[in-house]
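Onboarding guide, step 5: your first structure request.
Type a short instruction followed by the sequence, for example:

Predict the 3D structure of this protein.
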Amino acid sequence: MLKRIAVVLLVVLSLSLQSCVSAAAGLKGYVDSSDGYEFLYPNGWVPVRVDDGPDVVFHDLIQETENVSVVISPVPAGKTLQELGTPSEVGYKLSKNAIAPPDSGREAELVNAESKQIGDTIYYWLEYAVKLPNQQERHNLASVAVRRGQLFTLNLSTTEGRWPKMKALFQDVVSSFSVY
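The system replies with structure tokens like these:
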């Protein structure tokens, strides 16, 4: 009887440890302590230097069009994220101003928009289907938060063809985004 209890406890402990490890498996951490944010990104991705663009960009070594970036923008008059709009409203504005601005030839459809509170910070998680001229359709995920008078936007992008394979990993990346 004692052996059975010990075996059951070992199995439960083993499964618990595996689930803790699998959530971050295949991911590395990036921390920008001067700007106050951090996130996980896939192993095998490398930083890319971009002048006059996002604060940071990483892309896949093999699938170079797969990328994650963080953009930091000022917020008017110290507004909160909720004062900027609902998740759908902010998602729509982001699609029209950043993902598919006028005359870019791109089209972005907001597929999903939701709000999450983590600690004392509200995050909007946004999902887009993006059409680009003469290129494969893309799938974008974003996490948006306001902190210290700035709007932080993490954007993750892949081709629509790779989306089903990368979906769970990319959702882990987006949910790991944290501002402080």
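Each response can be followed by summary notes, for example: The CA atoms of residues 133 and 178 lie 33 Å apart.
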